[in-house]
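Please produce the structure of this protein holding zinc ion.
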Amino acid sequence: MIKVYEDFDITLVGHYQSVLESNDIATFMKNQFGTSGAGELPFVEVIPQLFILNEADAKRAKALIKQLDNPENRVEQKAWQCPECQTPQEAAFTHCWKCSAARPTIDG
Ligand SMILES: [Zn+2]
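Below is the modeled complex.
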């Protein structure tokens, strides 16, 4: 396993995990339920960490996270709705998580 991200904000780590999974990258989150122990346990023991299972995905995973981590990109990204099945989608997803339809291009 390769660690690709860590942050005390569990929702952010979880969000990144969803994005990687939606891009067919197998992930594993460590310390997902460990935050209640903060203050008693060493820093590294409780911070939520996102791992990928396959080394072959490392480059792609890091590129995706780097993109997500950029505030400029975050502002431009908007939540969208699948044109095929009308399911609401996270802004970072490039394909519908339900039916795999491609995200429609944004035209204004
Ligand atoms: Zn869909």
